[in-house]
Amino acid sequence: MSEVIEANHRPVRDVSATAASTQAGPGALVIDHVGITFTARRDNKRYRAIKDVSFTVRENEFCCVVGPSGCGKSSLLLAVAGLVPASHGEMSFDGNRIVSPERDRAVVFQSASLLPWRTVIANVSYGLEMMKVPRREARERSRAIVELVGLKGFEGHYPHELSGGMQQRVNLARALVADPQLLLMDEPFAALDAQTREVMQAELLRIWGQMRKSVMFVTHQIDEAVFLGDRVIVLSKGPGTTIADIVEVNFPRPRSEEVKRTPEFLALVDRIWNCIRSGATAQN
Ligand SMILES: Nc1ncnc2c1ncn2[C@@H]1O[C@H](COP(=O)(O)OP(=O)(O)OP(=O)(O)O)[C@@H](O)[C@H]1O
Asked: How far is the CA of 256 from the centre of ligand 1 (A)?
């Protein structure tokens, strides 16, 4: 749910913005007192999705974002991608202000949206073709990424010949092939069955371990966030979403499924779950 707002709303600044900006090193994503509003077509009024959110994603960090349905997770991710403007606040990546989509940031959505008339390798190389990368180089880079995501041998397959998990691997390869510094993932495994989802979580960690990108990963699944992330940002209930908690996850890497059965893991899941369930409001 979003909140209708007055036309002249101005955000209140507090100490967390300063903290967010100064702790960020090079290669960091800085989200500094960002708010997001939408103008609804139905009544032309402005509705606030995100009220005031500040956090950083450090270079090479795997940062997960969770929160109640409708709290604005996807909107925030789209804003970082440069696809939705912030109504106030600032966002920067690697020191550059975010105002539009750029090649340093790639997005992976829940739906793979592959081009059905193109093979796996042609889907993956499409972005490079658009960037006018020479054909041979584009093919070589695409082959390497297809292998990295575990699809060696399937280069000539068409999307309809692939399982949902394999399609999502292609989707990931499409995002990675242009070598972005920041990967933005919006519920990428939500449409997969539980077993495939677990496989893909492990695969994503393996790939991330090899490529070491910064990742902002939005999910509904708290255990997924704790399993994957170095930190979990917990957003408060909308409307007027802020940050409810920031949870450090210190399990050693590489992580295996076993960690999910440890008391420490379950305690973190519980902490986040209680925070979301209680409809917590801002502490940070
Ligand atoms: N393009 C848009 N126009 C108007 N309102 C929008 C638009 N996109 C999102 N919203 C509103 O902003 C709020 C946040 O939506 P958003 O999809 O970002 O939340 P979410 O936390 O990702 O939700 P979910 O977990 O259910 O996917 C919602 O109230 C939604 O209706």
From this structure: 33
Nearest of 184, 186, 217 to residue 80 by alpha carbon: 184
Write down the ipTM of this complex.
Answer: 0.96
Are 6 and 39 within 8 A, CB to CB? no
- Is residue 1 in contact with ligand 1, taking CB distance under 6 Å? yes
Does the CB atom of residue 74 touch ligand 1 within 6 A? Answer: yes
pLDDT digits (tens, 9 = 90+) for 123-157: 999 999 999 999 999 999 999 999 999 999 999 99
SS3 135: helix
**Cα of 56 to ligand 1 centre, how many Å?**
22
Whole-structure pTM value:
0.90
> Are 265 and 272 within 8 A, CB to CB?
no
CA of 57 to the centre of ligand 1 (A): 22
CA 73 to chain centre: 9
Residues 6+ apart with CB under 8 A from 137: 128
Q: Which residues pair with 62 in a beta bridge?
A: 215
Q: With beta carbons less than 8 A apart as the criterion, state whether 95 and 59 touch.
A: no
* Nearest atom, ligand 1, residue 218 CA: 22
Q: Which of 4, 37, 43, 71 to mutate to test the pocket of ligand 1 (most atoms within 8 A of CB)?
A: 71
Q: Which of 43, 73, 83, 243 to mutate to test the pocket of ligand 1 (most atoms within 8 A of CB)?
A: 73
3-state secondary structure of 253: coil
- Fold adopted by 3-104+180-277: Rossmann fold (3.40.50)
Residue ranges, comma separated, of all CATH 3.40.50.300 domains in the chain are 3-104+180-277
